[in-house]
Amino acid sequence: MSAHDTPIPMVARRSGPLKGEAQIPGDKSISHRALILGALSVGETHVTGLLEGQDVLDTASAMRAFGATVTQLGQGEWRVQGVGVGGFAEPAQVIDCGNSGTGVRLIMGAMATTPISATFTGDASLNKRPMARITDPLALFGARAVGRQGGRLPMTLVGAAEPVPVRYTLPMPSAQVKSAVLLAGLNAPGETVVIEPEATRDHTERMLRGFGAEVTVEETDEGRVITLKGQPELLGQRVAVPRDPSSAAFPVCAALLVPGSEITVPGVSRNPTRDGLYVTLLEMGADIVFENPRIEGGEPVADLRVRSSPGLQGVETPPERAASMIDEFPVLSVVAALAGGTTVMRGVKELRVKESDRIDAMARGLEACGVRIEEDADTLIVHGMASVPGGATVESRLDHRIAMAFLVLGLVSERPVTVDDGGPIATSFPLFEPLMAGLGAAISRANG
Ligand SMILES: O=C(O)C1=C[C@@H](OP(=O)(O)O)[C@@H](O)[C@H](O)C1
Ligand SMILES: C=C(OP(=O)(O)O)C(=O)O
């Protein structure tokens, strides 16, 4: 579903020191997976800390349409009564995944080996994103996609009546593709194998094991070889969702940039497959301390203490790090604009097929704010400056991360930065505005 109908312009102004504690919402990737695996399990799954952003709410509605019972018990506390592997019913209505690539791609995988059909659609952003990367491997199981030319939504997926297991090497580093293949493999006999030449976020493998599937991971010369034994009985679990490092990135980067700031950010996931931004910020000279490291809900977490860091220096991020920080490049570009020297982000072409073309969105927005950038198909280069003029209205292009990144820039630019539509922020970080205001950030509705 579309999270909002009319644009919500927002503005950020130069702010005094950010202080206090930032309670980040639950991880989006893990929240989607908790609902989907809960729906594919026998018995009851109890989730705490679920992200109640629109992307995840759309996945909850989809799981209901496939026959699971999904109930909100309290804030972030949800119950899923599953239908078991292979138990999805054919939905009576079109499945609208809104703005969410993760939602639609994982759900297509989850239904592809069940003999039912479902029609999927999304908002104007999602309906432009490539789906052949999913329907190609799902066809190997015996599923069939029918829809628009060019592999875009809306499309109908006809699940395989007699699925066969698959061995598939990922042609691009994508946890969504990996996860779709593994979820499809659940209802195929025999072993489904996914080979990923570059490691991507591993929440699906971790959580499948937690729900009782047999999953092995081998590091080989070809990359990570993930083997799933098909047709397990998944059993409902208790899932405690850790806080989202991709959402935490916004207040963390804001605190690094705004002079005199000191914030704490408790309980953020430090899964190594998600840690690239934090590695990069430390290399740039950021003052971030990871306190009280521990395991929560099967994921490594820590409490972050972040202090403003005036001497940040530009760095080069290598292509092999890109997957572990893929959603953080927009906000890293903002940090880079205020760092000494040049920051070169390599191996980032996947950014071109996110909610927007994020290389183009950042490049045009930063230029409008007075920052010098260079780009090619797979690289973004930002030339840092002591002070960014700002004073522009930037297009958020139905992309939550673009909107939040430019609002962070506005906190430290000479003149305010406006984003034409902050509505998409609700897809991943519904309480971004009050959370940032609570820290002392001057972010508000532009017409309010
Ligand atoms: O699997 C996931 O939960 C995600 C994988 C990434 O997408 P790709 O698989 O397209 O890289 C990431 O950008 C997205 O926000 C969440
Ligand atoms: C790319 C993202 O999400 P999705 O692919 O699920 O739309 C994101 O949250 O930055």
TrEMBL record:
InterPro entries with a match to the protein in the record: Enolpyruvate_Tfrase_dom, Enolpyruvate_Tfrase_sf, EPSP_synthase, EPSP_synthase_CS, RNA3'P_cycl/enolpyr_Trfase_a/b
Subcellular location field: Cytoplasm
Example of a GO MF term: acyltransferase activity
PROSITE patterns named among the record's database cross-references: EPSP_SYNTHASE_1, EPSP_SYNTHASE_2
UniProt entry tagged with the keyword Transferase: yes
Active site annotation, chain numbering: 327 (proton acceptor)
Enzyme Commission designation: 2.5.1.19
Keyword tags: Acyltransferase, Amino-acid biosynthesis, Aromatic amino acid biosynthesis, Cytoplasm, Transferase
Pathway per the UniProt entry: Metabolic intermediate biosynthesis; chorismate biosynthesis; chorismate from D-erythrose 4-phosphate and phosphoenolpyruvate: step 6/7
Protein family: Belongs to the EPSP synthase family.
General function of this protein: Catalyzes the transfer of the enolpyruvyl moiety of phosphoenolpyruvate (PEP) to the 5-hydroxyl of shikimate-3-phosphate (S3P) to produce enolpyruvyl shikimate-3-phosphate and inorganic phosphate.
Subunit structure, interactors included: Monomer.
Protein name according to UniProt: 3-phosphoshikimate 1-carboxyvinyltransferase
Organism: Pararhodobacter zhoushanensis
Gene: aroA
